[in-house]
Write a structure and sequence with these properties.
By secondary structure, the protein is an alpha+beta fold. The protein is about 35% helix and about 30% strand.
Length: about 190
């Protein structure tokens, strides 16, 4: 069973092409937003997904549309790659430390989009990246993947560490949730849509 998906999304603000393989493969990320590329690389590596992302956005305005539209496309690809979710673990969680930072994440491949995000970052910019875009990225991803995601910063002072901790913790939780550990859809309803 192939757990892969490709999504192309083109608007007046961006042109996004993504490919996701839940069972591994190559990673290549290019969005024109260097810190965001670094974070997407962390997401791919620690989820152990194969993931290619190529986004051309209106970064001369700012990174908002690039980040949002990439989140939309990645969420759609994740949903497509999961199919009917037969055999997956469904729930995943993680507790990820990076030096002084500690991030807790829980995910449910529920079919119901919901985000709880309590990981405010003390500094508004890391390089040229606006740290508020991270929450916006996950809002877009959650809405389109149709998953429930809780992200909580338990401790942290360094803004780079906090951002990286969030992406790594989400990646580990997703890796655990998408793992094939049984048969059938893991829901008493019989569907996760």
């Amino acid at each position: 069973m192939s757990r892969t998906a490709e999504i192309a999304r083109k608007t007046a603000e961006s042109d996004v092409r993504v490919r996701v393989d839940l069972d591994g493969g190559e990673t290549a990320v290019e969005t024109g937003v260097p810190f965001f590329d670094h974070m997407l690389g962390q997401l791919a590596r620690h989820s152990r997904f194969g993931m290619t992302v190529h986004t051309v956005g209106d970064t001369e305005v700012d990174a908002h549309h690039t980040v949002e539209d990439t989140g939309i496309a990645l969420g759609q690809a994740l949903a497509d790659a999961l199919g009917d979710k037969s055999g997956v673990e469904r729930f995943g969680d993680s507790l990820v430390p990076i030096d002084e930072t500690l991030v807790r994440v829980a995910v449910d491949l529920s079919g119901r989009p919901y985000l709880v995000y309590t990981a405010d970052t003390p500094v508004e910019l890391v390089g040229t990246y606006e740290t508020t875009l991270t929450k916006h990225f996950f809002e877009a991803l959650v809405a389109n993947a149709r998953v429930t995601l809780h992200v909580a910063l338990l401790s942290g002072e360094n803004s780079h560490h906090i951002q990286e901790g969030v992406f790594k913790a989400v990646a580990v939780a997703l890796r655990r949730a998408v793992a094939v550990t049984g048969e059938g859809v893991p829901s008493t309803k019989g569907v996760l849509q």
